[in-house]
Write a sequence for this structure.
């Protein structure tokens, strides 16, 4: 069963936040005449969830435009939810109970008795296990479903090693004593329960299964659902690998999304929901409280277009408020949940913070008519200005800002543009000002490594084996090596050549901005991983190792050994946290 449905179109405003039992959810009401059907999104875990998160928001927007309300939420101990408390329900039952409770919240908020469940990955396994507890479920969608817990954990372990290798994380800093990926740790009791699970069919009227060609278990699930009496729409999950490999370059499977919205639309009965049962949701969400912090999910900006979380200390507040910027297309919880960890630890020391998604990132919809590629775009300065307006309205200025990678670029551009910002901690910036001649997408996909990294890799036996098997792009590797040599020459020559550059050059603009920040006493903390490609661009303007920065009394620079670009190892995160904390105290 499948009806025609709308293309995926963005909403103008962010969804409405709510809190329940230590968890955070986002409810998207229907923007069209509502029918007695609402959708509950049940997420995967880990890096896959980071990639899927924005997709859920896009689907929620499209469903809303088609008359279907929805709710998406974080499991206990993940995303913005509180950490799992001692004495809580243990094992997989904890996340299963979260789903049941979220479904009850959705019915209350939407006024709908009937729900459909949309799930992916591990979320599909959980949804299959609790479906009978949800009552009146019109249909179940399983995208790339996990059906064998043991096989899933084995695959997750391999994927985790590939991520660690790709990031260049030293062996001593890799997590080996726990199920993990990209700095995220799965609770041991939950992993132990998952290992025992094998799921097949379950009783449901309609099912939608997006199958991966190389995973027989996906199609076996579709067949099992048919045997149990379901009307199953089975499709090929085209583009799955490109979707879940890396949130920075993730390609959203729009065709899958459009077919899914059409399928959900076909589940609606002709009877609209009674107006008196549809919640206006006028009450603000309650605060989440931890040992020494309180958090409130908020929307701000025009029409509440931006979504974030305000974190404040339970005790006396001190220091400037920190604006924690996301990185690339990662949600505001941060890579490896680092944004959440930073905010709560800062609150423990009396420092407030706001972490949020910029437009077209995570849970914040794009600006109508805005650019599709928002990384390194001047349009993001409007989002930071909106965050500062919000903090000013709730009397939480002065503020400083922090970010990594593209977030550090935005942090630097923001402190240059906004005098309300008293300082910035920027980690691994690719550049301080974007050269308009560069294509952002090309740079993201092909940013070359530094020269000595190629030398190290060439000496590895595994690299030689791959070369013999024809698995190495020799031409591409050689081209990048030539570029690396050219950059090294350029690094030494540019500081000399820049002395003769005109006042309108990119170099003179950047130097002028650093001088202006010193003149207004805006503090700058620069953090680089020791092999980060951003050091090449730093050297082009300030010499090898940034030695020319010594002329600016307001700049403090730190080089982190054994750290990847994402600052995944614990020691790197701690150094970043200390720099942010010191900045907040300095600029009180």
């Amino acid at each position: 069963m499948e009806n025609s449905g709308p293309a995926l179109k963005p909403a103008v405003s962010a969804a409405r936040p709510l809190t329940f039992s230590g968890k955070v959810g986002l409810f998207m009401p229907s923007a069209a005449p509502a029918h007695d059907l609402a959708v509950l999104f049940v997420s995967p875990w880990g890096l896959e969830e980071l990639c899927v998160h924005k997709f859920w928001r896009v689907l929620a927007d499209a469903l809303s435009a088609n008359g279907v309300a929805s709710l998406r939420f974080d499991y206990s101990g993940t995303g913005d939810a509180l950490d799992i408390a001692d004495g809580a329900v243990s094992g997989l039952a904890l996340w299963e109970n979260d789903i049941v409770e979220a479904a009850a919240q959705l019915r209350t908020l939407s006024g709908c008795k009937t729900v459909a469940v949309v799930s992916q990955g591990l979320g599909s396994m959980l949804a299959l296990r609790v479906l009978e507890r949800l009552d009146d479920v019109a249909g179940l969608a399983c995208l790339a479903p996990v059906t064998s817990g043991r096989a899933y954990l084995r695959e997750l372990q391999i994927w985790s090693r590939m991520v660690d290798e790709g990031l260049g994380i030293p062996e001593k800093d890799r997590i080996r004593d726990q199920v993990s990926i990209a700095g995220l740790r799965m609770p041991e009791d939950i992993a132990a329960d998952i290992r025992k699970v094998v799921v097949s069919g379950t009783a449901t009227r309609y099912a939608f299964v997006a199958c991966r060609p190389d995973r027989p278990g996906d199609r076996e699930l579709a067949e099992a659902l048919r045997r149990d009496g379901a009307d199953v729409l089975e499709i090929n999950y085209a583009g799955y690998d490109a979707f879940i490999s890396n949130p920075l370059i993730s390609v959203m499977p729009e065709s899958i999304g459009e077919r899914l919205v059409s399928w959900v639309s076909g589940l609606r009965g002709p009877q609209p929901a009674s107006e008196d049962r549809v919640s206006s949701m006028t009450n603000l969400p309650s605060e989440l409280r931890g040992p020494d912090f309180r958090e409130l999910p908020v929307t701000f900006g025009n029409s509440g277009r931006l979504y974030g979380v305000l974190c404040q200390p339970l005790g006396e507040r001190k220091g400037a408020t920190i604006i924690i910027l996301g990185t690339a297309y990662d949600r505001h919880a941060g890579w490896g949940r680092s944004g959440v960890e930073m905010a709560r630890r800062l609150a423990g020391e009396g420092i407030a913070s706001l972490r949020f998604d910029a437009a077209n990132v995570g849970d914040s919809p794009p600006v109508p008519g805005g650019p599709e590629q928002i990384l390194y775009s001047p349009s993001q300065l409007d989002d930071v200005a909106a965050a500062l307006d919000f903090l000013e309205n709730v009397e939480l200025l002065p503020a400083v800002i922090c970010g990594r990678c593209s977030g550090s670029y935005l942090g630097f551009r923001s402190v240059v543009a906004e005098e309300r910002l008293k300082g910035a901690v920027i980690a691994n910036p690719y550049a301080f000002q974007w050269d308009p001649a560069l294509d952002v997408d090309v740079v993201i996909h092909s940013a070359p490594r530094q020269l000595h990294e190629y030398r190290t890799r060439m000496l590895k036996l595994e690299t030689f084996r791959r070369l013999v098997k024809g698995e190495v792009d020799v031409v591409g590797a050689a081209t990048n090596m030539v570029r690396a040599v050219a950059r090294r020459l350029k690094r030494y020559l540019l500081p000399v050549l820049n002395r003769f550059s005109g006042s309108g050059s990119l170099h003179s603009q950047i130097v002028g901005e650093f001088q202006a920040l010193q003149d207004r006493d805006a503090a700058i903390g620069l953090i680089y991983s020791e092999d980060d490609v951003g050091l090449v661009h730093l050297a082009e303007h300030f010499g090898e190792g940034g030695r020319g920065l010594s002329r600016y009394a307001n700049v403090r620079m730190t080089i982190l050994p054994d750290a990847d670009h994402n600052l995944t190892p614990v020691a790197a995160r701690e150094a970043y946290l200390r720099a942010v904390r010191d900045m907040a105290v300095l600029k009180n």
